[in-house]
Amino acid sequence: MQEAFSASGAIVVAHNKGLTVADMEDLRVQMRAAGGQVKVAKNRLAKRALKNTDVADFSDLLTGPTVLAFSNDPITAPKVASAFAKKNSNFEILGGAMGATGLDVQGVEELARLPSMDELRAMIAGLLTRPAAKIASVVQAPGGQVARVISAYSKEGAAA
């Protein structure tokens, strides 16, 4: 668990009061598909694993039935956990950590609203191709105007 904490970009701590086994499996599947992990660990063991890492101390959140969601990138775990919490009232996000920065519930929600790495890559690719498309349309515009003028004169000449 200590290695998982150290390698994580973000860790989300939540209470799982009354979640069914099917609900927990659904959360695990969603998190795994997005590139993260979900662990249900004893709070004492999680606190001990947290002590020898550079991760912000969130040991005060480790009370009661807790679930730890973590991922290598800082967006995946908060995004999946927030979406799951909206669908399941028994899953309550308490906070977490992003490296040495502690997160409260609002911090986790803010991270969840950020675009994922794939979405950012798509946005950057779109921004890079947009200038080329504009250049092509500008270069084609004068040619199109000349063609329209010639076409108009040819129609005018044919009519006379």
Walk me through this protein's architecture.
It is a single chain. With 160 residues, this protein is of the alpha+beta class. The protein has helices spanning 2-7, 21-34, 43-51, 76-87, 105-113, 117-159, and strands spanning 10-16, 36-39, 66-71, 91-98, 101-103. Helix 2 (21-34) runs antiparallel to helix 4 (76-87) and helix 4 packs across helix 5 (105-113). The longest helix is centred in the last third of the chain and has 43 residues, at 117-159.
Features:
160 residues; Alpha-Beta Plaits; 5-stranded antiparallel β-sheet
CATH topology of the largest domain: Alpha-Beta Plaits
The class by helix and strand makeup works out as alpha+beta
Assigned CATH class of the largest domain: Alpha Beta
Low-pLDDT segments: none
Give the amount of beta strand, in percent: 15-25%
Termini separation: 88 Å
- Please give the share of residues in helix: 55-70%
| Tally of helical segments | 6
Query: Radius of gyration, rounded?
Result: 27 Å
Would you report the number of β strands? 5
User: Which architecture of the largest domain would the CATH scheme give at its second level?
Assistant: 2-Layer Sandwich
The chain-level mean pLDDT equals: 83
Would you list the SSEs in sequence order as H and E? HEHEHEHEEHH
Write out the CATH superfamily name of the largest domain: Ribosomal protein L10, N-terminal RNA-binding domain
Main β-sheet, spatial strand arrangement = 2-3-1-4-5
Domains, number: 2
Shape: elongated
Q: What can be said about the biggest beta sheet?
A: 5 strands, antiparallel
